[in-house]
Amino acid sequence: MLELAATEMNLAEAEEEVVRVDETIAHLDDVSSRILKREMQALSVFDSLPNKQEIALSNQDFMWNSAPLVQ
Predict the structure, then answer these.
(1) What is the pLDDT, as a whole number, of residue 58?
(2) Given this model, what pLDDT does residue 68 score?
(3) 24 vs 42: CA distance, rounded Å
(4) Are 68 and 41 in contact (CB under 8 A)?
(5) Which residue windows are coiled coil (predicted)?
(6) Which residue has the higher pLDDT, 11 or 48?
(7) Does 71 map to a domain?
């Protein structure tokens, strides 16, 4: 019985670790997306693209206009 309880605890800990890893991956994906968007804006990449392509690349939930640009 103790082995079953220990196994269940180990499984719960592993599941929590998976959730933490998934959250970290989502955060890193968001950060890298914002970095890429700022770099592309700084290089004026979007000036030569149709609006439809820019929308496909952007995250509509993020306020891109407030992102700082490096000149």
Answers:
(1) 55
(2) 61
(3) 27
(4) no
(5) 4-31
(6) 11
(7) no
Q: Report the C-alpha gap between 71 and 68 in whole angstroms.
A: 10
DSSP-derived letter for residue 65 is G
49 lies in some domain: yes
**How many structural domains does the chain have?**
1
Q: Contact 38/5 with Cβ under 8 angstroms?
A: no
State CA 43 to chain mean position distance.
22
Rounded to whole angstroms, the Cα distance separating 62 from 57 reads 12
How far is CA 50 from its chain centroid? 25
pLDDT tens digit string along 28-57?
999 998 888 888 777 776 676 665 544 445
